[in-house]
Amino acid sequence: MITKFNHVAIVVPNLDEAAQKYKTVLGAKVSEPFDYLEHGVSVVFVELDNTKIELMHPYGEKSPIKSFLEKNSSGAMHHICMEVKDIFKACGEMKKNGVRILGDGTPKNGAHNKPVIFLHPKDFFGTLIELEQE
Ligand code: CO
């Protein structure tokens, strides 16, 4: 079912500082920061030839990653994202296999404007997994 690796997302305490460090120390190509009001995150994309890293910071008081940053004040890996051909079929498979989907269990448009679901980390060995329609 999963096809490609899409991105790894890392929550950082300071977006500019993190972007600067990836740029200068690792020589990475980094984007300008984007604010996603509806997702409550600001993101900088670190673009690699074969994948990308998303550096995220809470945006707004109701950000879903606010408490994550409070618990991991120096930053931490937040989730990994893989692509699937059919997100609705993926939902069915998760339900069939007793894997919980976060939220109301239906796909929502993610940061790349494609439908995504997040799988409960307790059902996947401690890793928050995002599945994105390819
Ligand atoms: Co993501």
Provide the CATH architecture: Roll
Number of domains: 1
Coarse shape: globular
Structural class: alpha+beta
Order of helices and strands: EHEEEEHEHEEE
Mean pLDDT value: 95
End-to-end separation in angstroms reads: 11 Å
- Unreliable stretches, pLDDT < 50, 5 or more residues? none
Kindly state the percentage of residues in helix.
10-25%
| Number of separate helices | 3
Please give the structural blueprint.
Blueprint: E1 2-11, H1 15-24, E2 29-30, E3 34-36, E4 41-47, E5 52-58, H2 66-71, E6 76-84, H3 87-96, E7 108-109, E8 115-119, E9 129-133
Parallel strand pairs: 1-5, 6-9
Antiparallel strand pairs: 1-6, 2-4, 3-4, 4-5, 7-8, 8-9
The chain binds cobalt (II) ion (CO).
How would you explain this protein's 3D organization?
This protein has 134 residues and is an alpha+beta fold. It has one domain (2-133): 2,3-Dihydroxybiphenyl 1,2-Dioxygenase, domain 1 (Roll), CATH 3.10.180.10. The protein contains three helices and nine strands. Strands 1, 2, 3, 4, 5, 6, 7, 8 and 9 form a nine-stranded mixed β-sheet that branches. Strand 7 and strand 8 form a beta hairpin. It starts with a strand and ends with a strand. The mean pLDDT is 95. Residues 7, 9, 54, 79, 81, 130 line the site of cobalt (II) ion.
